[in-house]
């Protein structure tokens, strides 16, 4: 019973010490919000997140220009060969290519990307598969009128 009371007092002390505030992070915007009001205290930082990719993975009928972004990162490493990219330093890749402009995907490929950060951290790898298929030309052509696939009349000539 004494241990339970001691634990309860310890938890209450922590809540009062830190004001019961929770730290919240938004991966989409890359901001960090402690929930602490101005003047009481603040916290700055970078949210480590896998690169955002545009357009979304999917099937397309033409070449796609794929853009990568990662707020707060110092570099993005990517591959289109199926291998997994890796950061060597905050600005270089062990595996893959340092992203500098949109990636042209003209045939079926998977773009894998990782964000590298100044503190030596790296994000998880994002993987986006793009299927590029030829546009349909409309109509199958050939074959003539019937659709049954069987011969419907025969003419013998002399």
Describe the secondary structure blueprint for this structure.
Blueprint: H1 2-18, E1 24-26, E2 31-33, E3 52-54, E4 58-60, E5 64-69, E6 75-79, E7 86-89, E8 92-95, E9 97-98, E10 103-105, E11 109-116, E12 126-132
Parallel strand pairs: 4-12
Antiparallel strand pairs: 1-2, 3-5, 5-10, 6-9, 6-11, 7-8, 11-12
Keywords:
elongated; 158 residues; three-stranded antiparallel beta sheet; 11% helix; 1 helix
Task: Describe this structure as you would to a colleague.
The protein is mainly beta. It has two domains: 2-33, no CATH class; 52-132. Helices cover 11% and strands 32% of the residues. It contains one helix and twelve strands, in the order H-E-E-E-E-E-E-E-E-E-E-E-E. It has one helix at residues 2-18, and strands spanning 24-26, 31-33, 52-54, 58-60, 64-69, 75-79, 86-89, 92-95, 97-98, 103-105, 109-116, 126-132. The model is unreliable at 14-29 and 145-155 (pLDDT under 50).
Number of domains: 2
What oligomeric state best describes the polypeptide chains here? Answer: single chain
* Total of helices: 1
* Counted beta strands: 12
Cα distance spanning the termini: 113 Å
Pattern of helices and strands = HEEEEEEEEEEEE
The residue ranges in which pLDDT falls below 50 over 5 or more consecutive positions are: 14-29, 145-155
Rg calc: 29 Å
Strand order of the largest sheet: 4-12-11-6-9
Cα shape: elongated
- Let me know the average pLDDT: 77
What's this entry about, in short?
With 158 residues, the chain is mainly beta. The chain has two domains: 32 residues, no CATH class; 81 residues. The chain contains one helix and twelve strands.
